Amino acid sequence: MDLLIIGGSDAGISAALRAKELMPSANVSIAVADGFPNFSICGLPFYLSGEVADWRSLAHRTIDEIESKGIRLLLRHRAQTVGPKQRTVAVTDHTGRRSRLTYDRLVIGTGAASVRPPINGIETPGVFFLRWMADSFSVDRYLNDKQPKSAVLIGGGYIGMEMADALTLRGIKVTVVEFADTVLGTVTPVFGKMLQEELERHQIQVVTNTTVESITVRNGAMIIKGSNQFEISTDMVLVAVGSRPETALARSAGCRTGLNGALTVDRHMRTNVQDIFAAGDCVETWHRILQKPTYLPLGTTAHKQGRIAGENAVGGDAAFEGSLGTQAVKIFDLVVARTGLGEREAKMAGFDPFTASLETWDHKVYYPNARLMTIRIIGDRPTGRCLGAQILGRHGTEVSKRIDIIATAIYNDSKVSDLVHLDLSYTPPLSSPWDPVQMCAQAWLREQERGSGAPG
Amino acid sequence: MDLLIIGGSDAGISAALRAKELMPSANVSIAVADGFPNFSICGLPFYLSGEVADWRSLAHRTIDEIESKGIRLLLRHRAQTVGPKQRTVAVTDHTGRRSRLTYDRLVIGTGAASVRPPINGIETPGVFFLRWMADSFSVDRYLNDKQPKSAVLIGGGYIGMEMADALTLRGIKVTVVEFADTVLGTVTPVFGKMLQEELERHQIQVVTNTTVESITVRNGAMIIKGSNQFEISTDMVLVAVGSRPETALARSAGCRTGLNGALTVDRHMRTNVQDIFAAGDCVETWHRILQKPTYLPLGTTAHKQGRIAGENAVGGDAAFEGSLGTQAVKIFDLVVARTGLGEREAKMAGFDPFTASLETWDHKVYYPNARLMTIRIIGDRPTGRCLGAQILGRHGTEVSKRIDIIATAIYNDSKVSDLVHLDLSYTPPLSSPWDPVQMCAQAWLREQERGSGAPG
Fold first, then answer.
1. A165 touching B, CB under 8 A?
2. Shortest Cα distance from B409 to chain A (angstroms)?
3. A411 contacts on B by Cβ (under 8 Å)
4. Could you tell me the mean pLDDT of each successive run of 10 residues in chain A, 456 residues long?
5. Which residues of A touch B407 (CB under 8 A)?
């Protein structure tokens, strides 16, 4: 049984490990386009900030660790085309030499690429994207060689926010340019504005409602121009406006694509082509609340989908249980986390959402170092179903695992009222007898009760 | 509609607030035995440690805040007997004056009392219990007046552990005497031993397998003697060996008692006597996994049960969804949390438990300050059902809200395999693509798979 995996990031490595775990006799090979299998690309901002001293520590596992499991790594082998009838994949190694790999089952985990927005001059040296290790080496080299004093980040999403933090830590004056009203558009604008204030407290300039149109060079500096007469001079540009699935290889095999051009897969991570599975940032992701595919490329999801693809490729029957779009980010001392649907997403999906927002202490205020957090719970008015939640608070106040309590409830189709009944842990240094999450659920219910009148 | 509530701690106040919220026209009165309604008695150790400077800040709400909701507080009114036919409660105020209060509905929240073990000399001055504000004032006065250099804590449970921390913070040399093999018997002995090491690192002496038998006074110091020739001289003793329900009042009304002598209630918090509800540490608590009553006195549960009693007393039909015995405690820099059943409890309940234990980092180890935590998941072998979990880790690593993820899963009758599918949040400073909880669930499954053979 020859299992061939294309892609050495989260999905591909997870697939290989799971397959080998379940079927030790399988021949499992992974073709990795670069020389950096199993790197935590979510960690790149922390490498560039200097918080991670050695880029090698970004590896989830070393090459030796992977090979010790009996997995064959074909480094610097780029897959070009798939011949599904012959069950072959044409690859080119870094010397340009072509060869043909055969498979009984194929798992495609080719990931995504950075979106290149239509900006004149985007090819200018000093303009960077950030996705793979090579990208981060380019940025690092530029930071060390050119010692830029200023940087413009195009895009106020997760990577933009983390890089704003990272470059500020390195003493660089940062400007964030975001086309929408607020940064971090995946959470409520209320949180986007609070995050903007945190950035501004750290001397970062945040420019919203602005589309960058051109990058030119004048007297050795880059001039960035955009809508609303935006113009700024800078030493460096980082573009982080999203990602698009890498599907050329799969399409050469006849795999269908759907939403955002991502590969269409079933919940067993099977493509439409016999014996070809796909997982991670290159595929559509089943949404557990919407009960339909979305495009939600996340490392957590890639790990899960890869594990399922690997299991099923060796004869298993595992199913992906769906994503809730759960995410967390730490920016300076702030943590912002979300799960499920936002109010706007819920409306678009046909729900009748109602949001309760509560500001409260992370633990009993009499115990030292209590800090305020803001919790928002979104529920469906007619059914009471919990649709989503967002929390913004300080680092060290269990914001991210509090969102996970709600993610776990939503996974189980809970109502907002179920949150009140949960038996959650309490000790004064860490929570309150009603956890903040439950206080917010009570606030949500109170509003509902006011509408419907009290019993008795 | 006259609602009378006996008891001004968690259950009683929660009942009053909920009733008034749902039926603003109700006359809601609370007879409070002492002058300290709605105090966070879980906070007493932090007051005695000096971390909470002013005992007044231990109040969840001030008297003014409670009264501003239209709730009548009868402070220093001790209820003596209930006449269920006449619907009256005989009370005595602090001057000794007797009176009779009437009710349409009665909620009894008389709480629990400290267990007094059969130790000769337990009445010796300098021997303390810790439950109510008056207890903590006595301890505080003794600490200030006598400046004890040493203290013996009898009992290595939650309060004993927190007081060991508290008195050490105040510069007192502490000895903990525990009758069992390990301290904190509510968690695995493995964790009990790790906690013991943490105590010993802070110069606390821990004596296990020892029953204290007598306390005598010699030359101004107390001599504590126990089994195994145990003998120690000390300036102060604190006894914390558990609590027993306070039910005399309810029994005077004809309310039945059950397990541990606690009041028998249904899941609507109704006693067997018409129009009398009861909640909190004085009642049996429905266990969600065992599906039968237990005695599990906890502040979180008292709040929930009180809220339900208050709702139902004004005509509602809320039901208590059950306890999982979820608890957390912080001792020095260590946090220990549990939910659901331990392995021994699971066996006694007729399950076939299997435990997986995993030591791993709280977040990606490449990001600074990653710390190790140990997670144990207990599942039922034949069904795969998740029965319980315990985590021990460092303060600041989201241990308590990680246990709550599992508590939420267990609330929903999840299998261990469901934990792997959960869409939990991830960012390198706060977790890993598989949260530690999920890694432990995978370890649990791996063992099962090894037993049953791989698919394909």
1. no
2. 6
3. 418, 421-423
4. 97 98 97 96 95 95 97 98 98 97 98 97 97 96 97 97 98 98 97 98 98 95 96 98 97 97 98 98 98 97 98 97 98 98 97 96 97 98 97 98 98 98 98 98 88 42
5. 422-425
CB nearest A43 (choices: B24, B428, B449): B428
Give the Cα separation of B301 and B397 in Å (integer): 25
Architecture of the domain delimited by B2-37+56-112+243-313: 3-Layer(bba) Sandwich (3.50)
d(CA B132, CA B40): 9
Per DSSP, the three-state class of B285 is strand
Q: What is the pLDDT of residue A284?
A: 98
Spatial distance between the Cα atoms of A441 and B152, rounded to a whole number of angstroms: 43
List the single residue in A402, A408, A456 with the smallest CB-CB distance to B422: A408
Cβ–Cβ under 8 Å, residues B344 and B56? no
A433: chain B residues, CB-CB within 8 Å: 10, 40, 42, 60, 299-300, 302-303
- By the CB < 8 Å criterion, does B72 face chain A? no
Q: Are the beta carbons of A421 and B411 separated by less than 8 Å?
A: yes
Residues of A in contact with B317 (CB under 8 A): 455
Confidence of residue B149 (pLDDT cuts 50, 70, 90): very high
pLDDT beyond 50 at B454: no
Write down the CATH superfamily of domain A2-112+243-313.
FAD/NAD(P)-binding domain (3.50.50.60)
Spell out the domain ranges in chain B.
2-37+56-112+243-313, 127-239, 327-450
* CATH value of B127-239 in 3.40.50.12280, 3.30.300.130, 3.40.190.10, 3.50.50.60: 3.50.50.60
Q: Tokens for A57?
A: 């520590």
pTM: 0.97
The answer to whether the CB atoms of A326 and B367 lie below 8 A apart is no
Q: What is the pLDDT of residues A383-441, one digit of tens each?
A: 999 999 999 999 999 999 999 999 999 999 999 999 999 999 999 999 999 999 999 99
Instruction: Provide the token pair at B418.
Output: 């469901």
Rounded average pLDDT over B417-434:
98
Q: Is B42 on the interface with A (CB under 8 A)?
A: yes
The CATH code of the domain at B327-450 is 3.50.50.60
Supply angle C-alpha A386, A390, A394, rounded to 5.
Answer: 145
The per-residue pLDDT for A454 is 33
To the nearest whole Å, the CA of B252 is away from the closest chain A CA by: 28
Across the interface, do A317 and B422 touch by the CB < 8 Å criterion? no
A22 to chain B, closest Cα gap in Å: 5
Contacts of B279 (CB under 8 A, 6+ apart): B11, B12, B14, B15, B107, B108, B109, B265, B269, B302, B305, B306, B308, B309
Per-residue pLDDT, averaged over B121-137, amounts to 96
Q: Which of A57, A396, A456 sits opposite B22 (nearest CB)?
A: A456
Q: Do domains A2-112+243-313 and A127-239 have the same CATH topology?
A: yes
SS3 of B24, please?
Answer: coil
pLDDT of residue B455: 37
Helices A436-452 and B10-22 cross at an angle (nearest 10°) of: 30
- What ipTM, to 2 d.p.? 0.97
pLDDT at A451: 58
